[in-house]
Amino acid sequence: MSEHLADAYDVTSEASASPDAQTASLPSGTLIGAWVIEAEIGAGSMGQVYRARHQRLGRHVALKVLRDELLDNADLVERFLQEGRAVNQINHEHIVEVHDYFEERDPRRVYCVMEYLQGQSLAQRLAHHASSIESIRSMARQMASALGASHAAGVVHRDLKPDNIFLVTRGDRDDWVKVLDFGVAKCVEPLNGQPLVQTVQGAVMGTPRYMAPEQVSGLDVDARTDVYALGNILYELIAGQPPFDGASFGQLAAAIIKDPLPPLPTHTARQEPVPADLAALIAACLAKAPEDRPGSMAVVEAALAAEAAPILLTRVRRRPRVGGMGLVAAALALALVFALRPDAATAVAVPQVVAIAPPEEVTLWIETQPAGAIVSRGDSGEPLGTTPLEVKLLRDPSTLPLRIELAGYAPLERQVSKESSQRLELNLQELRKTTTRTSGGLLSGVRDPY
Fold first, then answer.
1. d(CA 137, CA 275)
2. I need a labelling partner for 184 at 20 to 30 A (CA). Which of 111, 161, 366, 382 fits?
3. What phi and psi values does residue 94 have, to the nearest 5 degrees?
4. What is the model's pTM?
């Protein structure tokens, strides 16, 4: 297994670090704080990553050190420190752990201490190994789970790509995901009371091949930009290359913004047939307009679940099985009913207590053509189940915002009254299918402008 840690913007493995980066490396034995440098394991335009050992405890970590020539740029220093705060705020098992970060004066150094990982990047896996459909689903679900937690903490990654996905071995599997490098992340909320480093309006941040149309255009980004990048990675895992390419940044940007999505192959490199539901999900994630993509990583994660796949594609009108996210919704609803109903045992034991009538409920039935759409609350994103769906609501004069999503179809949003029972019958509009394919040379020399 090779050692490989991502650094901001331009990542290389230990074996392929550039000669200039190697020359600028801190020599083995250099003491930084309590850490002794052992070897450089990654280098990029923002800094270098070293394997280091605690001088007293012997514990190994990855030490990410900002380049000396960037230390006088206050914005870059703050962005570097903001990355450490962002990762700590998220605290997810599929995101690399940041133990601490430091800004020292004598000698002047800025660095963060991260968990030390051994394995390979997804980029390395793609170059040498074709993944099974089962592994592709598993890796993508882990990414979606990590990014969902990131978005809940108010952090949009903006640079999701195979180089920033690291795979380690856990148990008998070698595809345990760690999402790396939040160096260009957009923080939409203050972190631990610290002011945010704002991106200049119109600045293009990220890696061009994996940028969404709004991102490559320099427009504002949100969680759906990461949804697009995840769709890009899924496409590459199946097709062996990203969907769009170009000989220059301008050509690539034009293709991402205007060209239709090239069709996926019918079979993977392992000669497994590409499931129709997975192909539809990828197409939905790669929709040009953010509003046409799945609205959250929770929706993507549910669609990737093996047990959810038959539900998402079925055109047969049937009652859904209670499982997965539906089970969670059912449990929450049951807990709410028990919390609001008077306890029967208490009523028997204390007959003098006047019984309180249970709150009046209304029923909402939702059916879609085709069936199998995921219904979630439009305000909180909480999943309610898949269609055909029956939901019990407490009667009140308010309205409930709903979002209805099915991979391969345009999402719908509806406001429903909670004053009376009602039935919604919705026809979903299938997204336009495309058959043309772009051509162009390999993108070379396109770097982040930072």
1. 11
2. 382
3. -100, 20
4. 0.62
Residue 368 confidence class, pLDDT cut points 50, 70, 90: very high
Instruction: Identify whether 259 is a catalytic site residue.
Output: no
Residue 363 identity: T
Kindly give the interhelix angle for 297-304 and 276-285, rounded to the nearest 10 degrees: 170
Active-site residue (options: 7, 159, 163, 448): 159
pLDDT(278) > 80: yes
pLDDT, one tens digit per residue, over 25-48 is: 889 999 998 999 999 988 766 788
Q: What is the pLDDT of residues 322-331, one digit of tens each?
A: 344 443 443 3
Q: Token pair of 425, please?
A: 């019958």
Average pLDDT over residues 144-152: 92
**The 3-state secondary structure of the chain, one letter per residue:** CCCCCCCCCCCECHHHCCHHHHHCCCCCCCEECCEEEEEEEEECCCEEEEEEEECCCCCEEEEEEECHHHCCCHHHHHHHHHHHHHHHHHCCCCECCEEEEEEEECCEEEEEEEECCCCEEHHHHHHHCCCCHHHHHHHHHHHHHHHHHHHHCCEECCCCCHHHEEEEEECCEEEEEEECCCCCCEECCCECCECCCCCCCCCCCCCHHHCCHHHHCCCCCCHHHHHHHHHHHHHHHHHCCCCCCCCCHHHHHHHHHHCCCCCCCCECCCCCECCHHHHHHHHHHCCCCHHHCCCCHHHHHHHHCCCCHHHHHCCCCCCCCCCCHHHHHHHHHHHHHHHHCCCHHHHHHCCCCCCCCCCCEEEEEEEEECCCCEEEECCCCCEEEECCEEEEEECCCCEEEEEEECCCECCEEEEEECCCCEEEEEECCECCCCCCCCCCCCCCCCCCCC
Query: Alpha-carbon distance 72 to 79, whole Å?
Result: 13
192-229: pLDDT as tens digits: 444 433 433 333 445 789 999 999 988 888 999 999 99
Tell me what percent of the chain is helix, strand and coil, each rounded to the nearest 5. 30, 25, 45
Domains annotated for the chain, with CATH where assigned, are 14-115 (3.30.200.20), 120-313 (1.10.510.10), 325-427 (2.60.40)
The token pair that represents 268 in the structure block: 């993977």
